[in-house]
Batch of 4 targets.
Target 1
Amino acid sequence: MRSPLRNRRVRIAVLLLVAVLALAALMGPRLVQRYHARAFTPVMQRYIAAAVAGDSAALETLSAGHEPVRWALGMRRREPALLELAARGMQPEMLGSMGSGLERLRFRFRHPFAAPGCAYPYDGIYAAFRTSGGSWRLVQAGIGPC
């Protein structure tokens, strides 16, 4: 006859194993997305640094078109404090992949940015990237609606 204590230990061990597997199944995709999003952080950091400095040449090398350059220089004129906040650090978050190798991300600010005249604070910068010549380049950058 088996000891009731041993049966209880086996049941607890099985329950813990099931709980760990369930947690891994739930958190796994999110961890993979976070890991994948980290690849875009150095590009975005250089883009924000170039925007803060007003360096259009550096912005052009990091962009796959004129729109991200115009947006960054426009934000430098209109809301330089937003770019300064972004330069202090952002947390990347994958939003999804689109066709033809386009990746969409949101770079969350560490603290929300309250713009004058806006009902809600901005929480980050939205960006789309495409690989070009072996490196990621910005196709689009922006913030949410006011």
Target 2
Amino acid sequence: MKDKVDRPVDLQDTVSHWQEVLDIRFRQFLEQATALNLEEAERHLLVFSSLLTVRLDIQQGHLQTLDDGEPIQLIEADHAILRNLTARTRHSLDRISAADHPRSELINHLNTFTKLMNVLRNHDLRIVDAVYGNIDQVLTKKANLDHADRMNEAMLNAMNPQVH
């Protein structure tokens, strides 16, 4: 997996790259959780959660520059749902770790994991259509690259979250 990116071509390329990284990180969590490698699953979930939080914060900043409307309201609702599902996923992993029969407990929580993945994928489509699909028309080339650079820096920093 390529975590370090060259100077982005534009903000759309950067957004696409980090969507892919986020998807990979979630799949790594899911692979470890379903194999009951729970310490590794926790590590991957921490990175995923850190990346998602930074990404949602960046998107929220971009939303502030747009006119309010139905797509923006749906995206903001997605953000709340994603934050809630991420917290529920953390709680599910804690429950699996504490269970006498972790495999049975895992089965009870698979729906939460898949729901998070599905909401994230639908959100990715919505955010690209509503915000990043026409970003070139809104930003100058320099501003586009500056936004991409700031996103890359924030996301790279999120790749090494601190355990609290």
Target 3
Amino acid sequence: MKKIKLALGATSIIILLAFSYKYIQVDIKEKIIGTWHMIDPNDINQEIILPTKWVFTSDNNCIWYENNILIREFSYNITNYSCNDEYDSVYRYLKLENPLDLNEVFCYAINGISEEEDKMYLSIEFDGNPRPMVFKKNATFQNPHELPEDQH
């Protein structure tokens, strides 16, 4: 009887983890949709917005802009397969593929999407570069040279 209770408990935990895992996957895929502006990595207050923005659409397109000029377009996928195509049960990866050249693929490890009050941040790392890129959702570009002196 003790073994049956233990087996049922373990099965319940596995089912709960599977549902949690599925929720996390859906949550990232939903939260990433929108406009993300790159943040100056040297700004500890995370308020200096750079002119680079990425727009993720619900039909899996990622559009890169620089100074509001379209630079590149990709199709994107969020997956558990690493940049080396190895399954990873912990981390998610953002893969960008050029629809005109299927050999051109960019892969980023997703460090996370965090929410603070009314702000949302996306942190990713390009494969092979441990320095994270941080984006702020629905931010407005501000030229750091035009900010008041106390915000530099």
Target 4
Amino acid sequence: MLVLPAESNFDLNAFAFKDSTCIKITRLSESASSETGYTQLFQDSAITLASLFISRGKDLIYHYGLGRNLIEAGHTYLVETSAPVSLQMGSLYEKERGSGSYVTTSNGSTTGDEFYFAVPFENGFYGEQDIQINAYDSLTRVILDVYINNHWMQLGEWQINPDETITWNGAENGNVSYASVFRVRSMDGKKISVFESNAIITEYSGFSGVFTMPSALDGNSAGKKFIVALPEPSEQNNVFDPFNNQNFQGKQSHIYLFASQPTAVRVKDLATNGSIINRNFILGTDSYRDLAINEQRWNLMLNNSNGSAPYLKIEADAPVSVIVGSTVGNRTMFCGSTRINQVNHTIIDSIVPVINPGEQITSQIAVHNSGNLSISQASAEIITGKGLQIISAVYLDEENNTEIPEKFN
């Protein structure tokens, strides 16, 4: 589900991780809304904006010519797919300079082993695409490719150790810019994270617009360890600091930390292991902290990063969530929870993308409780597309294959 504030139209791109992925984009709202409150959604009369099959590594904008100015301000949209995809929304065709975000993988996390994405760039400003990669495991082999002339062209290959980072940018590689899809893979299945940006490292201006939520080492939105890229500081003279009741002075980058339970937090700059940034503090229940990094310290981190962008290492005794921010204007983003989901489900039998009339299929979903609390009075809701009818649904105990008398909606 996508909602766009009432400012301007946005572009929407989607990237597939499996061949023959069916993607359908519909508009659910009949009229645009800029008011606070409820929005009426009409799925039965939804307007279909795009419906197609896309292949692994392909995208809407560059491969199929769809997605530009697709999302109208104030409307609500639904994206349905037959297999996981990642989405990119924003100014992807014009006014792209000075922004960036973490890249999501097929499970919605920014920590994984396979990433497909684009780095939008403005015509006439070449060499400003930046791609930053960090690893969490020893001897992680990473390959960066771009899709050019109907094949993948390798741009670089590295071996990265824990807490190490690398940066690729177009300025140092022939002043190139690629209007296509990039691919980053960890060849041994080890976890990495990718941060893409435009004109943040290569063209420092102090007017960037970044607001993004990285995942923890284990892939959850909340966790005990993060390695986060720190974008360039932006002008913050008009930004209010609620902790001292004054506006920030000069240029700042921000790390926002959120906790649902009390925890100690430790933050160090990655390159020097704390010689430049070394902060320790306590977060209380349902509280947050804004760690602001000024321009002087950011430049010190940049100069000690051996050509890579500045990074911070964040460790906590209990799970926290993190937002990376550096912006002079309005920004929107989707947030994850400050609590770790301890009930997870796995699809055992995948649902086929096309079902012919009269055919029946069976889908099994395993639910695992990794927490220390038992589940009782459980209920589940199954939502199907038009033309599908659920014949029966039951809970089964995995150990003895017996039915559990719980409720299905």
